Amino acid sequence: MLRYDLHSHSTRSDGLLSPRELVLRAAHRGVDVLALTDHDELSGLEEARETARESGLRLIDGAELSVSWRELTLHVLALGIDPSCPVLIDGLQAIRAGRASRARRIADALATAGIPDAYVGALRFVTSESLISRTHFARFLVDTGRVSEMKDVFRRYLVEGKPGHVKHEWASLTQAIDWLHAAGGRAVLAHPGRYKVSVSGLRELLAEFRDSGGDGIEVLSPSHSDAQVDEFARHARVFGLLGSSGSDYHGPGESWADLGDMPPLPAGVEPVWKDW
Ligand code: AMP
Ligand code: MN
Ligand code: MN
Ligand code: MN
């Protein structure tokens, strides 16, 4: 049975490994099929593809799109896209365009909370200003000794209700799905267990996602408990959605799971890769 890992990040968004290092690590760890899914960004795919060709691993071209739905930010994985598709390229460009101004608002909020110079501080950790993310602020706060661990930074500073959190409007759900479909990809709702929604809110989200053309949900994610894996396997069947599996790997020391660590998809879930 092939080992799939359909969710990972490189230095082209908020990962710690270059696309090349990431692919080599995945191959070394026995991953057969890897998707590179940088946040709102396609620029790592070429290097990843070249490395995949050398190492005998199959690369799936992907991205993780930032979406606003109601009061929430959702992440939608685009899997198997054509990275040269102008509709998708323009869409991602529009999402990224908001990142720098959002980051300035995050820095202003942190300054008000007594932490100056966070914008230039976070910039030290990015490869391009247009992809600056909360992860880069988190690395800055850990680097300066304000907080000892990455996960604590989010809890104390960067999530809703905390001093460094700001509201932001990303793409709409239908825009994101339409763009990635234009590029021939499949739309997978990433880590559905991470969204703060009620039981009925989750049903509404899954129904709206499917009715907007969504193809699948990430059943296996290291952020899911065993009970959530069962729950999302059931939701996939009930809502007629495909199932996906991904480690959401960001780099050594910063991830819950390593590349290829996920168990097989639960029985009865139709895999997103069924006709690849
Ligand atoms: P952004 O797209 O700028 O909102 O940043 C989101 C990224 O922050 C996610 O993709 C994760 O890599 C990271 N992140 C979010 N929440 C947490 C958390 N609780 N602990 C560690 N990393 C997190
Ligand atoms: Mn990330
Ligand atoms: Mn995500
Ligand atoms: Mn991710």
Please describe what this structure looks like.
46% of the residues are buried. The mean pLDDT is 97. It is globular and about 50 Å long. Strands 1, 2, 3, 4, 5, 6, 7 and 8 form an 8-stranded mixed sheet that branches. By secondary structure, it is α/β, with parallel strands linked by helices. The longest helix is centred in the middle third of the chain and has 27 residues. Helices cover 40% and strands 15% of the residues. One manganese (II) ion (MN) binds next to loops.
Topology readout:
Layout: E1 4-5, H1 19-28, E2 33-36, H2 45-55, E3 58-69, E4 72-79, H3 86-112, H4 118-123, H5 134-143, H6 150-158, E5 171-172, H7 173-182, E6 186-189, H8 199-211, E7 216-220, H9 226-239, E8 242-245
Parallel strand pairs: 1-2, 2-3, 3-5, 6-7, 7-8
Antiparallel strand pairs: 3-4, 4-6
Helix pairs in contact: 1-2, 5-6
Bound molecules: adenosine monophosphate and manganese (II) ion (3 copies).
Task: Provide a brief overview of the structure.
α1 packs parallel to α2 and α5 crosses α6. The chain has 276 residues and is α/β, with parallel strands linked by helices. It is built from nine helices and eight strands.
